[in-house]
User: Fold these one by one.
Assistant:
Number 1:
Amino acid sequence: MDFSFSEQEEAFRKELRLWLEKNLPEGWLEGKRILPEGEKERGSFLRDWQRKLYEGNWTGISWPKEYGGRGASLMEEVVYQQEMSRVKAPPELNLIGIGMVGPTLMQIGTAEQKSKYIPKILSGEEIWCQGYSEPNAGSDLAALQTRASKEGNSWIINGQKIWTSFAHLSDRCFVLARTDNTGKKHQGITAFLVDMHQEGIELRPIHQMNDQSDFNEVFFNDVVVKEEDIVGEINDGWRVSITLLMHERVTVARRIFDLQEQFNDLVKMAQTLKKNERPLIENPMVRSQLVDYYARTRGQLLNYYRNLTMQIKNGHPGPEGSMSKLGYSDLGKEMFGYGVKLQGAYSTLWKEDSCVDPSWQRTYMTFFGYTIAGGTSEIQKNIIAERLLGLPKDNK
Ligand SMILES: Cc1cc2nc3c(=O)[nH]c(=O)nc-3n(C[C@H](O)[C@H](O)[C@H](O)COP(=O)(O)OP(=O)(O)OC[C@H]3O[C@@H](n4cnc5c(N)ncnc54)[C@H](O)[C@@H]3O)c2cc1C
């Protein structure tokens, strides 16, 4: 493991820093990092940001050049993540397209799918969502019941998905549906690329406790998909879905750099907030808790580097991504919770212009979702136990 960055990587960092200074939304670098309130307004703000990243050649940076990406090395990608975390850049609206659907299509899509979809993913012209989970199929994804049946040259989809992030802002959806009911539940699933702007798609937003409605219930009523929009083979969707999930874990694992920033912010907060005229950081219990968080965030980062080293050597991500996903979401939630606690009575003022930064409360509530999305913490622990530690299989 080598922790230093090469001259080329540092030059890459400098170029990105300069670009961010010029292009981040007004006031962002000075700490005015507020996304617009309404879903529609927030959507258009994020679309603009996605477009800006694309125009500056700062999206899909690890995508191969042949697909319009920057062809950056894994280490440059690390630099990219560090810098984006440092300035707390606005989120990428097309995260699912760029981080998951695009790489999956590059791996197993047809030539036609690649040329039709990949350029518009990168440019942000088409935003993607992921239609996997159903009311009775989350951790046990293979239990999904949404059905697709063949009619002539098309497939007709009926059923319901749930927790579909950004479906209300999406143009296309990567959908898993059952095409055969006769074998084992992992068999008989097929992956479809679905146009979200057609009749038969009904969306119902889900209001979350952080007061946003980022995800939705999605109902499919005789939704039509052409044969050429099947990814992989018919009834081989389980393999396809796992390919996409591997890319999802890699995407989430990169957020580990946010944890380091979060820790720094926590220290700043403890230095600024006072009790009985004295900064909280002078309280030995606060200091002790901060030391604990320092050790754990640092441990998470080193673990991430170790896994990255393995990935560079092996050429592909492995189950180690589960460690970062688990560490990031559980520790992040705990640290945001501690930030809220430090605010004391002010922490209840999260909606108003209060004398403390209300983003702690909002993000704390958002983090509950992060411990569930992309596979719950318990499921990550199962993966770590079985695939990394070699413990006996979950008895399900
Ligand atoms: C913020 C957010 C965004 C999301 N975005 C999307 C999206 O865009 N697209 C999409 O398809 N889905 C999305 N999801 C859904 C997410 O993938 C599922 O919620 C998740 O897989 C868990 O499934 P479930 O909700 O059905 O819970 P269940 O699977 O019913 O789990 C309930 C509880 O049982 C535990 N449990 C289940 N099985 C086991 C086991 N074998 N061992 C130990 N414990 C177990 C779980 O850990 C959990 O605590 C999102 C969820 C959230 C919170």
Note: The beta strands are 128-131, 147-151, 154-165, 172-178, 189-195, 201-206, 215-226, 230-231, 274-275, 278-279.
Number 2:
Amino acid sequence: MRPTIIPIRTYAAEPNPCAPAPAGALHLAAQMRRRIIGQSDAIDAIVPYVELFEAGLAPEGRPVGVFLLLGPTGTGKTRTVEALAEAIHGSERHVVRIDCGEFQLEHETAKLIGAPPGYLGHRETQPMISQQKLNAVQSDRSGLSIVLFDEVEKAAPSLARLLLGVLDKATLKLGDNSSVNFERSLIFLTSNLGAREMARELTDRVGFAANLDALADPARLHAISLNAVRRRFSPEFVNRIDRAITYHPLDADAIQEILRLQITALNAMLEDRLGGAAFQLILSPAANRFLTEHGTSPEYGARELKRVIHRHIIQPVAQLVLRRLTVGERHIHVDHQHGGDTLSFYSTDKLPLAA
Ligand SMILES: Nc1ncnc2c1ncn2[C@@H]1O[C@H](COP(=O)(O)OP(=O)(O)O)[C@@H](O)[C@H]1O
Ligand SMILES: [Mg+2]
């Protein structure tokens, strides 16, 4: 079941300073906690900026907030931005997302802002960022635009220079000389800068078969990632960030909870797609263990979990549906036999269903 989304008051052009606090924003933290596991520092840092905007009190002449989300791969940095869009606008698609990996070369920033008039390709290059695109990710629930510069460590220095103006003055000049205004934007930069140093520290301290608890000192992790950021970006750039937050490696409990979230979402999808023929999946502890062991790692966090669920549950379940083996079943039990490299499926009455 998806959590109920409570609408956030639409931001008025002339905000009334005496208006009551928007009810939606008050529930935002709770909604985020249901979607993002084990990273409450990030939620606590982000929510007040949304509230400031919804209350009509965000400062002028700069973005509503600028966040740098740091920490190892697969710990929920990008997911946080998607989850915020879901909570605020009702869908994770309400994000202007720039993959900085596409801007590794100096001249590639032209793709972001469009080529200047007179240059070859001027007509063909539609800028990836425009006022229209920022406005299009707002919704009737909220006038806040969420902008994500993902994996910013991959960006060429020319992109970092463009970003300086955005972070500082909330404007970006496009190739055709028009300007984009970011005063109604919440800007997220994500990066795994420092993650390698964290991993090295882990191995140095406790040897190869490391326990992630050794990395549980949040202040130490934060210092490592901030140092890496300072080596990579100029002080001006770093100074324009409102909050830098370091995501922790996920512990076993967090990973279990993330798996539970994904299975809940999968069951909701089955309900939605199969209608009257829908059934719910029920995983045994052994099936849970199989998925978390194959879908998570210290190096990639929970990044592979979705793929593993796809391969080991969704694909075989599709086979069962196609072969009409799920007809009349309300539950499909999923189990794992010790040593096996696939999962097994059982009917509501726990009779084996051959996939
Ligand atoms: N803390 C978390 N809470 C909920 N889901 C998570 C979390 N961390 C990772 N995931 C899951 O793993 C996937 C990859 O995480 P992502 O946010 O893309 O990692 P990164 O930190 O590298 O940006 C997400 O789509 C989500 O399904
Ligand atoms: Mg990411």
Note: The chain has two domains: 23-246, 252-353.
